[in-house]
Amino acid sequence: MIGIVDYGRGNLRSVEKALEKVGFEATIMASPAELSTVNGLILPGVGAFADAMQALEQGGWIEPLTQFARSGRPFLGICLGMQILFEIGEEHGEHTGLGLLTGRVVKFPPGRKVPHMGWNSLRLEQPSHLLEGIPNESYFYFVHSYYAEPGEKKDIVATSDYGVVFPAVVGKDNVWGAQFHPEKSSPWGLQILTNFGKWVNEDETLSSHRS
Amino acid sequence: MLSKRIIPCLDVHEGRVVKGTNFVQLRDAGDPVELAALYDQEGADELIFLDITASSDNRETMVDVVRRTAEQVFIPFTIGGGLRTIGDIRRMLRAGADKIALNTSAVQNPRLIQEGAHAFGSQCIVVAIDARSNAPGQWEVYIHGGRTATGKDVLEWAAEAEALGAGEILLTSMDRDGTKMGYELELTRAVSRAVSLPVIASGGVGTLEHLAEGLTLGEADAVLAASIFHYKEYSIEEAKRYLAQRGILVRHS
């Protein structure tokens, strides 16, 4: 079972429907208490960095999310949900993020239309579970004004080019992030959700063997 | 690099897709959810549904269309027509829409743009402008489905919408809508230059050449079309192949 974190931000329904479409069960979680019932987690989000962190804090999510990430179970942040995986966000002043990945989230420099809105292509920087079967230069749907600058180059899995080359997919161990919206990026976005779902199921099998 | 978008527009009247000429003479063009799913498969980059009945008794029908679309369509889609309050916007977003197009209500109550952008983010607030030429190089904003002149200048209104927090402009030339003569390029270019938001060109597409012109000479970020796709004159795939041959960057799926 995949849990979708509901902290009052983001189009949760479309993430849930997209997972259903590719054959995985998902549940929208209104409270951190439900984290123990899921084997994989999706952290969605639209809006501003500080607002999202504040909403997570008010919902009592911060510590439970950190623990979930440490438990080794698959964790995927989408769009703003990816950005807040990092240590610092520079949207409307400096704000602290979840710090599950090192680095900061910065604004696109002037000289282009912001938000970066529409379909952009992915350049695969290293092989990964999450992007299995995704061809180089396939297109995904982005809407964002800020982008991540990871502290560790090896956490960058794929990049896109909007005048600056920025990370489109990041990942370290079990914690992953997509700057685009896989749930709105038919057909390759659905492939990514399929890969994530399979990974959650495999992990589930492994943990039941362990116990 | 960021690609140019092709956006089929579905005008919905009492739960069916229709198409008229210059905002009148409606013809039936099919079931909205079926058409939306087909366009997604064919490689459309986004979809827009405009509820042209937009009476409050019809709202339930539209929410149902949105909900069913969200179950089958995995590209972004926008809903417009008769949305007047933050509550209306929230309802459509909750049903599964990604963006909301505001037209008459934004002109009558510009604060709705601001409040919508604040509550849900600029990325989901599209300001739709119906423009009619009243002198060379000058266009006036019309509301109520093109029936009421407002005295507002299109370029000024576009800039004001941006300042209030709109995330995108959907620009329809009333003079060209339904004529198949091509987009009004001068208007499109003027608005594209007046704002730093993405601009969707609309009104008048009859050929694939028109799509290319809108994106190049019109300097639009996206092109909207209805009848050429609904009546199968061209498929989305043909349109993309043509644009790619013309050297325009489009998404291939």
Automatic annotation (TrEMBL), chain A:
Q: Which GO terms describe its molecular function?
A: glutaminase activity; imidazoleglycerol-phosphate synthase activity; lyase activity
Gene Ontology cellular-component terms listed: cytoplasm
- Positions annotated as active site in the UniProt record: 79 (nucleophile), 181, 183
Q: Which CDD domains match?
A: GATase1_IGP_Synthase
Against SUPFAM superfamilies, the record matches this protein to:
Class I glutamine amidotransferase-like
Q: Please state the pathway this protein functions in, per its UniProt record.
A: Amino-acid biosynthesis; L-histidine biosynthesis; L-histidine from 5-phospho-alpha-D-ribose 1-diphosphate: step 5/9
User: Which InterPro entries does this entry report, sorted A to Z?
Assistant: Class_I_gatase-like (IPR029062), GATASE (IPR017926), Imidazole-glycPsynth_HisH (IPR010139)
Listed A to Z, the keywords are:
Amino-acid biosynthesis, Cytoplasm, Glutamine amidotransferase, Histidine biosynthesis, Hydrolase, Lyase, Transferase
Tree of life domain: Bacteria
One BP annotation, GO: L-histidine biosynthetic process
What EC number(s) has UniProt assigned to this enzyme? Answer: 4.3.2.10, 3.5.1.2
Describe the location of the Glutamine amidotransferase domain by residue ranges: 4-196
Grouped into one coarse class, the protein's main location is cytoplasm
Reactions catalysed, semicolon-separated, are:
5-[(5-phospho-1-deoxy-D-ribulos-1-ylimino)methylamino]-1-(5-phospho-beta-D-ribosyl)imidazole-4-carboxamide + L-glutamine = D-erythro-1-(imidazol-4-yl)glycerol 3-phosphate + 5-amino-1-(5-phospho-beta-D-ribosyl)imidazole-4-carboxamide + L-glutamate + H(+); L-glutamine + H2O = L-glutamate + NH4(+)
- Xref: NCBIfam families: IMP_synth_hisH
Q: Which HAMAP family match?
A: HisH
The entry's function note states:
IGPS catalyzes the conversion of PRFAR and glutamine to IGP, AICAR and glutamate. The HisH subunit catalyzes the hydrolysis of glutamine to glutamate and ammonia as part of the synthesis of IGP and AICAR. The resulting ammonia molecule is channeled to the active site of HisF.
Subunit arrangement? Heterodimer of HisH and HisF.
Protein's name in the database: Imidazole glycerol phosphate synthase subunit HisH
TrEMBL record, chain B:
Name of the featured protein: Imidazole glycerol phosphate synthase subunit HisF
Q: Return the SUPFAM superfamilies for the record.
A: Ribulose-phoshate binding barrel
Q: Name one GO cellular component term.
A: cytoplasm
Residues forming the catalytic site: 11, 130
What does this gene product do?
IGPS catalyzes the conversion of PRFAR and glutamine to IGP, AICAR and glutamate. The HisF subunit catalyzes the cyclization activity that produces IGP and AICAR from PRFAR using the ammonia provided by the HisH subunit.
Q: Which organism is it from?
A: Desulfosporosinus lacus DSM 15449
Question: What are its GO biological-process terms?
Answer: L-histidine biosynthetic process
Q: Which UniProt keywords apply?
A: Amino-acid biosynthesis, Cytoplasm, Histidine biosynthesis, Lyase
Q: Which domain of life is it from?
A: Bacteria
Q: What is the lineage of its organism?
A: Bacteria, Bacillati, Bacillota, Clostridia, Eubacteriales
What's the chief localization of this chain? cytoplasm
